[in-house]
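Shape is hard to put into words, and the shape of a protein is harder than most. The fold becomes a row of whole numbers, each drawn from a learned catalogue of backbone shapes. The outcome of that step, for a single protein, is printed below.
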Amino acid sequence: MAKSNKNRWVSWSEDEIKLLKKLYPLGRVREIAEQTGRPLTAVRQKAYSMGIKTRERRLWSANEIKLLKKLYPSENTQSISDKLGRALHSVRRKANLIGLKKEGVAPVWSRQEEAQIRKMYPDNRIRDIANHIGRTVLAVTGRAHKLGLRKMNPVWSNRELNLLGKLYPNRTTQQIADQIGRSVQATRLRIHRLGLKKKKRKGKI
């Protein structure tokens, strides 16, 4: 297959499409771009137009995780996504799950992430949204507030109520909110409605 940096608008050949169908689901976007001589954006656009998607559930290899740990603190996440051949939200979610942090300023929210939070926020738990997007609970809560998003009938489950009662005596409201996946305001309101009180510590004799 001839390589060229000018073939972005050239029709895809049958061999190129076969390569796309074979490698794109595996997330090997960069490999397709290198073999066809097409930009990464052109490869993704073609896959999108054909309805070809990467496999969200494919396991991360040891080499991928090693590279993620090395690059994530200081490199642009989109760049890491391109190098790994994984979706942006998949990279952020994995980084969040293994506790990786960016150095300095928090990463800018992409349009895709904002679309996801708008879609999920009304009737999903904040922790579930955070895990899906690859952001912290605090980051999701803050972004939702900035976007003016509101919960739709945020009913507390028995599991959440039991966890709240268990954590309240020894944890701060912020810690409880983060662990349960609720906003601090919602957690405070629920504590007030339940009439929970901190246990007074007995002084040492």
